[in-house]
Predict the 3D structure of the following.
Amino acid sequence: MTATSHLPDGWSVGAGLEGEGIIITGAARGIGAAVAHAVASTGARVMAVDMNAEALQETVDGMPGEGHVAVVQDLSDISQHGALVRRAQDELGGLWGIAHMAAVLRRRADVTQVTEEDWDVQVDVNLKAAFFLCREVGLALTEAGRGGRIVTFSSQGWWTGGFGGSVVYCAAKGGVVSFTRGLARTFGAAGITVNSVSPGAVETPMLLTDLTDEDVANMEKVTPLGRLGKPHELAGPVVFLLSHHASFVSGATLNVSGAWLMY
């Protein structure tokens, strides 16, 4: 009896994503770009989606493998979600899943400065669009009948509450955790896993916007690892959740915060 006899046929040390089609949103910069590169390195075909056309094309041009597609799209227009998913199925030769990272943060130093527009923009992009796009992917995967993966992105603030001007952002991310669990229940019977990744302080353009050096130093101080995370440190957890290795992980919120948040 060999050491691998208890593993399913086709299991490998690799991610098991070779030849699969994956949608990656927010792929132009930061965590999204790092995830897109990592997923492409597994042999998957990536549809990279973002509103920043120039940065998005740079990301796609630098990705390993072939068959990748760059799509410039405003995901807050939910009427276009169905067409995006169908395009992914057609151009990627099928669809296995999505890692949805597209988000917007409007940092306000004081809650009295938060406007109704601030609320609407962040909730529409970070919660509303996320739900409808992930639902669209879930329905398409259910119809295809192969199972699949949905990975959302929340924030350590879903648990701690927003601070540093991010109250509305974190309120929306709390909703992401909640609907992730709901979709895990909804699509589980179809073999589709739905999980969320919860980053702490990661060195990205969005996090650093409007922060002082003192703000950053305070973040490093409250993180037991003593530093900000790097975008590539979020890529591994996402690849794991997209892969066959995470086939019995669903409804989970994976804490990747350098121990800032513990639960």
